[in-house]
Amino acid sequence: MPRVIYFFSGIDGAGKSTHSKLLTCYLVKKCNCKVRLVWMRWFALTSYPLLAICRFLGLTLRPRGSTIPLRLYWMVKPISRLWLNLFLLDYAIYASYVSANLFCRKSVVVADRFALDILVDVIYDTRLNPLKHLVGRFFYLLLYKLLRTGKARGVVMLVDEETVFSRRKDIPLRSYVRFRIPIYRKLAKHLGLPVIDGRAELTENFKIVLKAVGVNG
């Protein structure tokens, strides 16, 4: 097996974690691969001071019962622009470290979440188009290159708004889901990524995943 990142992106509650665990087990048992399952979301580095300032200014909220913070950075344009750059920079550093560390061990990586989710996050937090900013364009082109060279292979998993709330009780707002679903669809189309309906039967969906990422089922 080539050293590659297989990733699952998409809306909360669509089945990304379940399918990433299934793919990990499949690659280990059926393909005899050395596989590492990682949660490639994000880690604050250069953006940590800005996060602290925004909490002090009341631009970060955590609704009762929600594990997901709401960042209202779009309300202040200088902060939204700064957050876009620092957020993407932090993820690029984090993802580079994880990838280099695992690939040096000759591991195939299965990622629960990936760079596509970060783009959706930053669009939601800032209401800015990343492609109109230098760091955003670089980030997008890097993801595009990983996909085109086959070093990253993935799927986008989506479900409707009602399914999200029936499966997840920690989502802050309906608008949080309503805003993100079309962004995922648009980015998936631009990047040529298959979109999988997370409401479908698990076994059939997993067969679709195997075919989509180029693993023999």
Query: How many domain regions?
Result: 1
Assign the CATH topology: Rossmann fold
N-C termini distance: 14 Å
> Can you count the beta strands?
7
Mean pLDDT: 91
- Major sheet: order of its strands? 2-5-1-6-7
Keywords:
217 residues, Rossmann fold, two-stranded antiparallel sheet, 53% helix, globular
Written description of the protein model:
The model has no long low-confidence stretch (mean pLDDT 91). Helix 3 (77-104) runs antiparallel to helix 4 (115-126), helix 3 (77-104) runs parallel beside helix 5 and helix 4 crosses helix 7 (174-191). The protein is an alpha/beta fold and 217 residues long. Helix content is 53%, strand content 14%. Strand 3 and strand 4 (70-71) form a beta hairpin.
Explain the layout of strands and helices.
Layout: E1 5-10, H1 16-29, E2 35-39, H2 48-57, E3 60-61, E4 70-71, H3 77-104, E5 108-112, H4 115-126, H5 134-148, E6 152-158, H6 161-167, H7 174-191, E7 195-197, H8 202-212
Parallel strand pairs: 1-5, 1-6, 2-5, 6-7
Antiparallel strand pairs: 3-4
Briefly summarize what is shown.
53% of the residues lie in helices and 14% in strands.
